[in-house]
Here is the input.
Amino acid sequence: MTHGAAITVDGLIHRYGPRTIHDGLGFQVHEGRILGLLGKNGVGKTTLIKILMGFLAPSAGTCRVLGEPSHALSAATKRRIGLVFEGHLAYDFMSIREVERFFSAWYPKWRRDVFHDLIDRLGLPLTHRIRHMSEGQRSQVVLGVVMAQDPDLLILDDYTMGLDAGYRRLFLDYLIHYARAGRKTVLVTSHVVQDMERLVDDVIFLRRGGRVLHTSLADFMATFRHYHLPHEAVPHALPDAGETLHAVEREADGGVSIFAFHDRATVDAALRRQAVDPSALEERAMTLEDAFVGYTGRY
Amino acid sequence: MRPRSPQFRAPQSRAPLSRPLGWLTLALLLTGVSAIALPRLYDLAFAVDVAPTHLFYSPVREAFVFREHRGNHAFTYADEHGETFDRQTFEQQIPFIYYRNMALWGLLPLTLEGRTFDADTIRDARQVFELKAREIADRRPSIAVYPLLESNPGRARLRFPEDVFRMTDNRMEFLNVDVNRVDAALTALFTEALTAEGFAFPARLVAGKPTILKPFDEGYLIVDAEGVVFHVKRTDGQPRVVRTPIPADLGRAIRHIKVTENERREILGLVLTDDDRLFLLRAEDYGLIPLPTDGYVPDRMDAKLLINPLYPTVVFGDDAMVHAVAMTPDFDPVASYSRPVPGTRGLPHDVVAGALFPFTLSLDDHGGAFLTWRLDGHGWAGLIGIAGSLLLVLGMARARRAPWRAAAPVVALVALTGVFGLLAALLVPWPRDDRASLAPRPAT
Amino acid sequence: MPALFYKEWLKLRPVLALLIAGTLAFSVYLFLSVRHQFRIEHAEMLYYQANHIGRLFYEDLRYVPLVTGVILAVAQILPEVQRGRLRLSLHLPIGLAPLVLAHLLIGLAALGVILALDLAVLALTIGTFFPAAFVASAVTTALPWMLAGVAAYLGGALALLEPDRRVQAANLVVTAGVVWLCHLSRQYGAYDHALWGLAGLVALMAPAVLLPAHRFRDGGGR
Here is the structure.
């Protein structure tokens, strides 16, 4: 499709007083894609997600969601967007049945089956109040509500927070199945990067200073590599990161990790140019989390 | 006709009106509240004391004398020709007022115009009738339920009956206060007595003094539907109704009757008409004695009639002017005098307030019993405060780099309301220009 | 829109029950306190005090609507702003203004029920011991107190929805100003000629809530 962008961010600028958080940020999320928004704390991830969800008007630039400015969505467009807020926000004073009765009134396409499929697994009576639920139980109700809305676009802000491994897995499995089966567009953030590996098609890395990398997960994992230089082979002066070497980090054991979007030969050549002997260099396998840390840096 | 481009229309229809509406109402609210509160706080902090001018007719000098407040609790005593006195001399000019001091100073008996007055004759002749603006029936809330006292109590003090009456559309209805129920017998008794005298229901006005803290009881003067004034009393438990000879056309114009129940029993009370005429109502024959009160504005002024053996004087005024008319014992005008009251006008306190506040909004009883809204403009001086406030708000707009669209309503508010709007500009977040970010990107 | 009524009903149910119970308890107290007066003093003296001296036998009611308004605002709006929960409603397929005004309307309707109950209790109590003219006077005297309750409710909404502390304080000052204007006189019937202006001022507070609501949505929500 030609106008297949579910989210378009262009020239986005946001400032809090004198602090500039985003300065000319731009990217697109295409329909039907699942995108992970990754970045360490303090790079403006929260600000961006607020803008995307429509709870912060950007200082300048555009942020369009399903074709409308995100902070001035029409009712019809809001109906097509499902939001999961950080901490699984819900109306504590409602019971499960009341939650369904309330939210289903707003969504003509309400999927009762989807809601109850998820809820039934909790094994809770429908009269159970959200207030009395664990974080994990509440997260299932929240996911059930959002999925039952049958939205075209889902935005999930740190769905993993407060969930134990079991509920995280449950949440993720449902989300993956639901998104793939329904060709939904999904934008997620999470502290647990490794979950993303199973979920997302694309990733956006936000780095300090507003640098952005938007790529497919497969491409990223295929091209981004981790090389390790053991302690004995490490020269007195660490090689500089630059054109070829994305990042150079000293490990706790004295060895050095080198991250690059290049094959062994190119990295070897770059090291030699800096008078470092690459013969002891070895490539190591990476999880997404390793790659995330390697790409964004530890500090 | 120029076609409208859809790009032009779209942001127009999407710009939410609710935000500017929220700003406007909150800003107006703050402006309104500060237009009431700030001048009050200012007065609380800087107000200077004022006191009314006391004006009398001196039978000694045959001229008006007065006591005037100069500020800081200092007073000037003088006569209308500019001669000033000390306080004691002043009091000696009006011996009928200060007759007790006169006696102390050994100046009684006193001979004036060939007549001799001692303390007793002065005291016996002295009567004071007063009608304050706040007393007038339609200027104060009231509950139209009245006790009709036994006017012949057979004992020294009056006491309240265990019933009250109210005038309904067709009867004078008595209620027993212990059980809060209609007393049918008493109701019938009084209603019949009224009807027998030709009373036309419903009553237009009921006037009396429903207290036992008075020497005797004269009951009520009740104006009927046609303007006839009836005098109703309860004597030995029985109704005593007098159809007074007051002409009905005058009766229909009666605005207020103050029943005075004065010891001398010569005067039943004061009668005020819609056209601001003030009368004394004679007890003997219900005759009305007009008082020479030209320029009397009952809604604003208090009126006082000081009766003494030689020159009964009526004094009336507000906080700006005081007027007095001296009369013969038969209430024929002899001399009159008016004098401005030195108020706060022109004092630094007042000048600063006038310049600082372009207007004052007040919710106040203005010395009465009802709270009323009033908007007082402060004239051209107010432009000074507006100009200063405008400079400040324009400076704020510059400092904030506020876009014209956001600043314009704020500046307009300040231009209209001065310092009050400035307060709103400081405290209420300015309307933001949402349109910039809503507008579609320009086609390249 | 009926769904919003449903949500607010679920949320406010317990506090409404509490407020109604409180009102009933207060009404018993009010009735007994007036009856007590009639037991220890002669009725005709009490009539004299009520009418001529201007003693208000129902003076204890004065600040009850104010407290009711504050409680209702807190009960309705605090849960919405805690953790930015209002974002859930703001994302519902409905515009911000209708959403916010519907919430206020529901709150005001609930408040109206309680204030009407207050007035009914007042009328019944005074009407038991005094004739109708006293009842009318008591009700008109209590009307500005009721307006103070409405002002307190709307002021609570103004302050609670506002994300910025300083603006929150300013909104509270405005509210305090309006509430103050509702309690200027101790004279019965003093507001008989001023009530409409006062009601207009209080009414301005309702659309004013749209500003903090917008500010909440455009950056205040956590």
User: Anything to note?
Assistant: Residues 129-304 of chain B form one domain. Residues 18-46 of chain B form the longest helix (29 residues). Residues 1-14, 433-444 of chain B have pLDDT under 50 and may be disordered. Chain B has three domains: 16-47+353-434, 51-126+308-342, 129-304.
